[in-house]
Amino acid sequence: MTPAELSGAVRPEAELTNLLRWHGGRHMPIGPGFEVVVVPKLLADQAVKMISPMDADPVGAVAALADDGWAFFVPEESYGPGWPDRTRSLGYGSTIELPQTPGMPQAAHGARWVRWRGDGRFYTAPLLLQFALAAVRGGRPLTA
C-alpha cells in the first residue's frame, strides 16, 4: 500500500509496535494510519490513572518527551469531538523523538517510556482519553 492508500486507515498494532522498536531513540515519522497527541505531563498522568483501571485497559504505548509532554498514539483522524486546550495533535508528516526501546540504554535527549505494552498494544482509545482529559480539567466533555 502507498502512504495515500494507508491514510485514513488504521494500521495493525503489531506493525506499529515494531515501528516504535525500529525508531527507538530516534525521530519517527508520524503516520500514515496513526497520529500522536501530546498532553502536558500532569494532565496526562491524571487521565491515565482515571482510565487505566477500565476493563481491557484502553491506554497503549505512552512516551514522556523531553519537553515534559506525554505522547499518546491514536488512530488517524481521532480529533472529534476535539482535544482540549494545551494539547497538541501531530499528524501525518510530523516527526516525534522517541525514547529508546525498553531494555536498551537511555537516549541522551531525556525521553522515556511511561507505558510500554508487552502485549503489543500501541493505540490509546481516543474518545476515552478525550473524556478523561476533560474530566480531570474539571470541564464538560467537548463537543464538535
Helix content: 25-40%
Class based on secondary structure composition and strand pairing: alpha+beta
Main beta sheet: 5 strands, antiparallel
Mean pLDDT, all residues: 80
Note down, in words, how this protein is organized:
The protein has 144 residues and is α+β, with helices and mostly antiparallel strands. 26% of the residues lie in helices and 21% in strands. The chain has helices at residues 3-6, 13-23, 41-51, 126-136; strands at 27-29, 34-40, 62-64, 69-75, 88-90, 95-97, 112-115. Strand 3 (62-64) and strand 4 form a beta hairpin. Helix 3 (41-51) crosses helix 4. The termini are far apart. The relative contact order is 0.25.
List keywords for this structure.
4 helices; five-stranded antiparallel beta sheet; 7 strands; two-stranded antiparallel ribbon; 144 residues; disordered N terminus; alpha+beta
Brief synopsis:
By secondary structure, this protein is an alpha+beta fold.
Write the layout of secondary structure elements.
Elements: H1 3-6, H2 13-23, E1 27-29, E2 34-40, H3 41-51, E3 62-64, E4 69-75, E5 88-90, E6 95-97, E7 112-115, H4 126-136
Antiparallel strand pairs: 1-6, 2-4, 2-5, 3-4, 3-7
